[in-house]
Amino acid sequence: MTEKGEKQVGEMQSPLLSPYKMGKFKLAHRVVLAPLSRGGSFGNIPQPHGGIFHYSQRTTKGGLLISEATGVSNTAQWSRETPGIWSQNQVEAWKPIVDAVHEKGGIFFCQLWHVGRKLKTEEIPLVVDEFRVAARNSIEAGFDGVEIHGAYGYLMDQFLKAKTNNRTDQYGGSLENRCRLALEIVDAIVKEIGADKVGIRLSPFSDNSNPNALGLYMARSLNAYNILYCHMIQPRMKYLGKKVDRPQSLVPMRKAFNGTFISAGEYDMESGNNAVATNQTDLVAYGRLFLANPDLPKRFELNAPLNKYEF
Fold first, then answer.
1. Residues 69 and 156: beta-carbon distance below 8 Å
2. Quick one: pLDDT at residue 12?
3. Nearest-CA neighbor of 206 among 179, 170, 175, 232?
4. The pTM of the whole model exceeds 0.90
5. Cβ atoms of 45 and 77 closer than 8 Å
6. Prior bond of 117 cis (ω within 30°)
7. Cβ count within 10 A of residue 97
8. Residue 48 and residue 309: Cα distance in Å, rounded?
9. Sequence-ordered list of residues with C-beta below 8 angstroms from that of 49, at least 6 positions apart, any chain
């Protein structure tokens, strides 16, 4: 994993544009394409033409991209316009998209997703196995790794948060029990494809009465699996499209986690540079800014004007 000493940034270099070694991956800069749902699939099969255009347009040599949320089974989706990766047809459809990113020198992770909800206890091992198979399929499709979607109110987040988890079995009640499903999924995927190809996305500050306890527990627990990265949402990003400044911070979680730390949530160039320069994070993920500006790292390099995004 990344050594703490590698997280220091040279004083004369733009922090966001400085190189970074994430496990075995040599990143040319620290600007990450955040996962962005596009609704461009047909029958849960990604469409190569649109996918190639979208992702390759945002690829730079040595840049990290995270795919749109991708379903792990036919019961994990919210619509037929979102992609999946549980079938061979889906794996084959992803291959030319992944190839297009690799041809431009990009590093591409597939975000694995289950929208939930209302699982019976005996159904949980089946869902864990669906994530395992989806991770294996992602590697077969050519992805460099996977990001487990544990944020924004979807299945895993429904278990993590006391507000939505009213279970009375071993997956509910205490903080340890509420985190059990997430860690079982991490364990299964690590055993399937290796810890060096696994990341996770979490949003501990969203709809949570005790976000610090949850974030710290997960950060420390994830260290036991030696996964590649932890991707968390800043507390100021409370509602989609609404920036709310709050006194809490991801810094305690960042310090607790041993691997690469990615932060997201309403960053611009200035705040992203500051976050890296002050060691608050290793990498910064951009969503809507990257959507509106496919050449975002280059615009940051030139300090060029940015297109405004639309909701």
1. no
2. 55
3. 232
4. yes
5. no
6. yes
7. 26
8. 24
9. none
Read off the tokens for 179: 């985190």
Q: Cα 95 from chain centroid? A: 20
Which residues, other chains included, contact 40 with Cβ-Cβ below 8 Å and sequence gap of 6+? Answer: 46, 47, 50, 51, 54, 81
Q: How many CA atoms, within 13 angstroms, populate the side-chain half-sphere of residue 140?
A: 16
Contact by Cβ (8 Å): 283, 267: no
Cα(92)–Cα(95) distance, integer angstroms: 5
Tell me, rounded to whole angstroms, the distance of Cα 49 from its chain centroid: 24
- Nearest 10 degrees: CA dihedral of 148, 107, 69, 275? 70
Give strand pairing partners of 71.
84, 113
Q: Which residues does the annotation mark as catalytic?
A: 154
What does each C-alpha distance from 65 to 33, 129, 155, 235, 284 come to in angstroms? 5, 25, 23, 23, 11
* pLDDT tens-digit series, residues 172-210: 999 999 999 999 999 999 999 999 999 999 999 887 778
Q: Which residue has the tokens 């590697």?
A: 139
Under 8 Å between Cβ of 260 and 283: yes
